[in-house]
């Protein structure tokens, strides 16, 4: 698969051969769903907590006499049926994460890249470098390209000026190659890869 390589100002910078094993697959929704679910579950804090009847603060004195009231027999205001009593079988802190093999995670990333390439929402950029950290210049370039919700993936490290310039632009996210993941790729409308990002991804996913 061949794609044109562009510069940030919109100029042409040649073409690039993309590996069909990474960018030419038929995207499978079931694989993408499983990987995204794994990511979101691992990101969930799991700190939800309620107080049981042993943890709520009430006197342990019997609330009324055992017999003669015409009501049910109760010994504690901590019982779950009372207002502000303990919660029965409520949530407790736990991990929501589950295992997913490295092989399957790699496969999911390949299908995410292929989904963007197949839909025409993949752009190859010569490089993501700026001489100065100027937000106005970068915002104008992104607007001219027609990118609204875009994820830019660079090589091993992100250029400091480019990162600083993009920090205040809404809808623009930047990741190094090792941060590339299925959820962030699918969440954005356009995926922009630099030449170095393509090389690193091909080396990482072989």
Automatic annotation (TrEMBL):
GO CC entries: ribonucleoprotein complex; ribosome
Tagged with keyword rRNA-binding: yes
GO-annotated biological processes: translation
Keyword Metal-binding: no
Keywords annotated in UniProt: Ribonucleoprotein, Ribosomal protein, RNA-binding, rRNA-binding
Pfam families for the chain: Ribosomal_L4
Single Gene Ontology MF annotation: rRNA binding
Origin: domain of life: Bacteria
Family per record: Belongs to the universal ribosomal protein uL4 family.
Role according to the record: Forms part of the polypeptide exit tunnel. One of the primary rRNA binding proteins, this protein initially binds near the 5'-end of the 23S rRNA. It is important during the early stages of 50S assembly. It makes multiple contacts with different domains of the 23S rRNA in the assembled 50S subunit and ribosome.
Record-linked HAMAP family: Ribosomal_uL4_B
Quaternary structure (record): Part of the 50S ribosomal subunit.
The protein's name in its UniProt record: Large ribosomal subunit protein uL4
Species name: Celeribacter baekdonensis
């Amino acid at each position: 698969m061949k794609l044109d390589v562009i510069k940030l100002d919109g100029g042409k910078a040649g073409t690039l051969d993309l590996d069909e094993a990474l960018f030419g697959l038929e995207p499978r929704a079931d694989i993408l769903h499983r990987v995204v679910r794994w990511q979101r579950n691992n990101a969930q804090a799991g700190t939800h907590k309620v107080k049981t009847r042993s943890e709520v603060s009430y006197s342990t004195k019997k609330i009324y006499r055992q017999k003669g009231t015409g009501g049910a027999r109760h010994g504690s205001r901590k019982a779950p049926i009372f207002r502000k009593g303990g919660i029965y079988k409520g949530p407790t802190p736990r991990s929501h994460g589950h295992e997913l093999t490295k092989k399957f995670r790699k496969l999911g990333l390949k299908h995410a890249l292929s989904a963007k390439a197949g839909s025409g929402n993949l752009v190859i950029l010569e490089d993501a470098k700026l001489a100065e950290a100027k937000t106005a210049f970068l915002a104008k370039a992104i607007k001219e390209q027609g990118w609204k919700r875009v994820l830019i993936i660079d090589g091993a490290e992100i250029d400091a000026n480019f990162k600083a310039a993009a920090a205040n632009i809404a809808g623009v996210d930047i990741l190094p190659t090792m941060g590339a993941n299925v959820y962030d790729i699918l969440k954005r409308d356009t995926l922009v890869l630099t030449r170095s990002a393509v090389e690193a991804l091909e080396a990482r996913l072989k």
